[in-house]
Amino acid sequence: MSMILTARALQIKTGNPLRKLVLVKLADNANDQGEAWPSVAYIAEQCEISVRSVQNHITELEKMGLLRTEFRKSANGLNQSNIYHLLLREPVNSGAGNAPSGANNAGGSGAGDSKTGAGDAPRISKDPVIDPNNKNIKSRSEKSKAKTSLPDDFKPTAIHGEKALSAGLVLNDEFEKFCDYHASKGSMFIDWNRAFNYWLGQAKQFKPQKNTNLSANIDAVERDETFRLIFSTGWKPKNKIQELSAIQARKNGLGRMSDVAGLSAWRGIWKQVAEQLAKEEM
Predict the structure, then answer these.
(1) Looking at residue 210, what DSSP letter applies?
(2) 258 in any annotated domain
(3) Same domain as 74, residue 33
(4) Which residues does 22 contact at the CB level (< 8 Å), separation at least 6?
(5) Helix (H, G, I), strand (E, B) or coil at 82
(6) What's the total number of domains in the chain?
(7) Are residues 204 and 220 both part of a single domain?
(8) pLDDT attached to residue 214
(9) Fewest CB atoms within 10 A around its CB: which of 18, 58, 178, 242?
């Protein structure tokens, strides 16, 4: 705090009592070089007025030439508390000075002096002094996870596999597109799993529509029996539909899914392969 600047602020007429209160509060938090860095919310709470009111009064004080605001941002682009440079000139001691009628200049003597013979001393604030480098304030990035670039070890999860299958997408193909796109853009995300989940949801909209007139004969018994065998040791496919469906099942991680989810996904794969083979035969 600066006792000298607080005394000067008390003697300056601003034309508005709340504006003067804001000025005094800034001076009370300033160092001897006239630099103060309290947050707007802190000033509002201490002066018992709204944040908007504080912002308006600071703007007016700037227009009056009583302060200059220095806006600051951290290296990662987040806003930091502003530094306010107080421009309070030493008051004139003659008749028509800035001091209100009946007030004494700080440190002067006269009829209004206290018992000690000195002028009324400015109040010494017990408010905490905030480090201009914000070392004792947690930044927004410290309160929440920071964004990162695509991790080298990022892999699709079983949830991604289920979503891809339900949308009729090939998981590995979409994952490749996802990685290539965001690596080329230099994208940063807090949660890459959610980002890929969103990608799969969007990719479904751009997937080519199937030919609804195309029909394929599906042997449900063969399909479900094959599902129970594809992960068995030594199993070999007996025909093209079994071979292609098994390849897609392993590609999309059906082995990591629950029995119910895996069977549902398998039936979707089997249907796609059957339709593709029927199309090729046509």
Answers:
(1) P
(2) yes
(3) yes
(4) 43, 47, 49, 54, 57, 58, 61
(5) strand
(6) 3
(7) no
(8) 46
(9) 18
- Predicted confidence at residue 167, as pLDDT, reads 84
Q: Report how far apart the first and last C-alpha atoms of the chain are (Å, whole number).
A: 87
Strands 35-36 and 79-86: antiparallel
- Measured CA to CA, the distance from residue 197 to residue 161 in angstroms comes to 10
| Amino acid, res. 268 | G
Identify the residue whose tokens are 């891809």. Answer: 164
Q: Are residues 9 and 78 in the same domain?
A: yes
**Domain finish residue from 38, 64, 89:** 89
Residue 188 placed within a domain: yes
Q: Which of 162, 185, 208 represents a domain boundary (last residue)?
A: 208
Domain membership of residue 140 (yes or no) is no
d(CA 188, CA 195): 10
Averaged over successive runs of 10 residues, the pLDDT of the chain (282 residues) comes to: 81 91 89 86 90 91 91 70 82 46 42 41 47 51 72 89 85 88 88 90 70 64 88 87 90 84 88 87 71
Question: What sign does the dihedral 60-63-68-73 (CA atoms) show?
Answer: positive
86 DSSP β-pair partners:
67
Q: Is residue 248 part of a domain?
A: yes
Alpha-helix residue ranges (DSSP H) falling in 131-170: 140-143, 158-166
Residues 268 and 280 in one domain: yes
Whether the Cβ atoms of residue 65 and residue 43 lie closer than 8 Å to each other: no
- What Rg value do the Cα atoms of the chain yield, rounded? 36
Domain that holds residue 183: 148-208
Q: What is the token pair recorded at 13?
A: 């007429």
